[in-house]
Structures are given as structure tokens and as C-alpha cells.
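hi! just following up on the protien thing from before. the input was this:
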Amino acid sequence: MNYDYDLIIIGSGPAGFSAAMQSTKFGKKVLLVEADEKHLGGAWINAGTVPSKALREAAASIHKYNLLFSENDNKKVYHRYKMSELLRFKDKVVNYENSEVKRNLIKNEVHTARGFGKLSDPHTVEVADHLGKVKKYSSRYILVATGSTAQKPTTFEIDNKIVVDNQSLVTMSHVPRRLVIIGGGVNAIEYATIFAALGTKVNMLSSREDYLPFLDSEIKTELNRMLERHRLIIHTGVHVDGVALNPLRNCTEVKFHDIETKEPRVIETEQVIHFGIRMPNSTGLGLEELGIKTDEKGYVEVNDHYQTSVESVYAAGDIVGFPGLASASFTQGRIACRHMVGKDDIKLTGAHPFGIYSIPEISSIGITEDEAKATGVNYAIGRAYYKELTKSSVSNTDIGILKLIIDPESMLLLGVHIIGESACDIIHIGQSMMKNKVPVNYLIDNILNYPTFSEAYRVAAFNAINRVNKSGLKYKQENS
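and the predicted 3d structure came back as:
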């Protein structure tokens, strides 16, 4: 049968974009369908990863400057810098990334269609544009990469002025003196530390009993120390009852109560940011009509190749659930396209790193010490504190730990956990060693640039080896 395209992709986020790029390398004819009338790149470029990281970079630079040069200046950061200056930098980054996506699609001859895409059969996509006109396109394969959307609050309204969400917060008019962040996930922590670094007094409200429970407990302790330093307060196990203006006090009040004790509380604030639980954009796509399996939350069920229960239809990115990271989505889209052409040599299995772009950054791969204890794994620990590093001294930062979890017999890495500057970059050293089964003696038998934050690996490796030797376990060093 003759099709219009070899592949139709619904959604131009990281999974969709990488799938388009990979397919054109195989000489395939590709159509990319995007519902946003103005922008490509989805939330990845326009409302999520890119703008948030641009704001984070601006805030981190300001914070670092103030640490280095503003000891005798009593002015708060929000007096010195305007939100418009940070947003101008954010807009510059977003505009550049948008132009790069467009340039790459044109360069690789990827066709685009603006409108809402829906599967009408296993090889056909209907695209309804913004004027209501519907066109049909056929394809040998279809990839659904429509991402996810944050749920709206039920006890108050988002007006995009005083109360904003992950999309409208990037248009805030000023750096608030007081801020309430509602949510307990990664995005909430990232923005809480961004604004705290700008001098804002931040209160974070989470319905969960704990925040970021997957972190190694020692990394969590260091994070808590940093939060305390910035006067950032996290209220866990609470339910938000409402957000309203108090005209008598000329401020916004956030009313909430403790879920367990029912004790009511009120916080006065200038602004509120709401981070809802993200849910897959899987409704209205025609998945159910085609018999494509989804779970109770609407996430599409796929195999290791990101193929759905319908052979010609694949799905990748946030719509398939965990891990829900842009970094993983890029690889998922690529794996799906390779499988379409008979190449199933790549699978996203085993440990992979995650990064939290807070100030400071947090990154991790492999098992935590808590998991090692719980499962009875034989392990040893190696630590390096940032305050021990010359790089930390010249960067004027003393917060940070690099922690290695190792097998004391083979001296192979079981996990790496980092909090501190450049954590999301240097985690890849540990990732490479784990993937290639390189023992930690590599870190002490080879030269690392000095001064760098990567040098923390060398310090932690020495610490781990010393601990193993002191415990009476034999360490077999290569070439000894």
C-alpha cells in the first residue's frame, strides 16, 4: 500500500523532534504534527525545560555574584534586579532554541502540519487546524509524543497574575518578596530554590508526607541545610483550602490545613505558583477506539521499543510515564524510530541519571545507601565534600557532597549521588564508569583536571578505598 509518509509524529517535544531527526537519517519521509499554532518544541522549549533552566541560570549567576561581591551591601537581590531582566534573558534563549528546532526541521526536510492530530485508523492521522478544517494523512508508522499537562487546582483559580502555573510564571512582572509554591515535586523544588536565591522568602506547600523521597538521605540532609540557609520553609502533609485577596491587609492569603491534625493555617504572600500533578495528554487522540492499551491514569503502555499494542503505532516521552524527563524522551523517540526500520540494538534499560536543577544542583544514578541497606547489599561508601575542593574555594561555595556507593569486592560503582554546583554535568563520569564496569581505582590511577568539581570523584575514591581497607576487606588494585 502507498502511504503519504513513512512516519507521522504527533507532538514536536523532545521525543517527537528526536524521532523526526532519526527517521530522516534513514531517508524516511516524515510529517510532524504540532497543536501549538505559533511554536514548535512543545513544553520542552516554550513552557518547561528550556525557559525554567534559563531562569535558573540567570538566578544562579546573580546568586553567585552576590556571594562573591556583595558582602557589605544590605540591598536584597529583588531590589537590585528586575524580573524583566531575567525574562529578557529567558526570552533570548527560548527564541534561539525555537529557531534551532525550525532550522533543523527545514534542513532535514521534515514536513509540518499545525493542528490537533487524532488517529482514525492504525495508518491515518486526522489533523484539525485552528480554523476547524480537517485534513487526513496516511503513514506506514505513527508515533504519539503528545507529552503531559499539569492538573488544575480545585480549591482556587489560576488568574495568571497573582496565582500562576508552570506556563504563566515565566511572564511574572517582578521578583516577589514573599512567595508560596504549591506542590512537592521536582519543578516545585527547582523554582523554590531559584526564587530563594533571589532573596525571596519562600514557603512551599506539599500534600505529600515528604518531598523528593527518592533522594539518598545524606544528600537530602545537605539539601535541607541549604534550604535552611535560604530561609526556605517546606510544609508537608498539608491541603490547600483556598487562595484569596485580603483587602484589609492588602495581601494575598493562602489558607491550608494539616491533613492529619486538621489544624488550619494562613500564609500571607505576594504571589503564588501552582505546580499540579502532571497527567498524560492521551485523551481525544483516538487511542481507545484503536484498542491501544493505556493504564488507569491514561499513560500509554509500550514495550522496550516503545511500540504500543497496535503494531504500527508507537509512543514516547511523557505520555508513556516514568521517567518523564526530556533527556529520556530524546532517546525514547530515537529507539522507536530505529525499531521501525528493523534496528533494535538500543534499549533504554538499567540505571540512568536524573538531574534536579535546583540551586545547587542535585543528580543521581544507581542505588542509594538507603536502598542498599534495605536490600542487604554488601556496600562501602566514599565521600567528597565540596568544601575540601580547591574549585569550591575559588567558586566561594561550601555546600556540596559527592557520594559513591561501591561493591567492596569488585570496587565497581553501584550508585553515585551528588548535590552541589555542576552536579548534573559531572554525574556522567559515574554513569560511564557504571555502564562500562570500571572500578574506582580508575579515578586515582588517572589524572583529572585541577581545579575542577570532577576532582571530587578522586577524593571520594580514596575515601572509599581507605574504608574498604580499614574494614579488613582486600582491595585488589590492578597492576599491583
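Confidence is low (pLDDT under 50) at residues 472-480.
Residues 14 and 341 are 20 Å apart (CA to CA).
cheers
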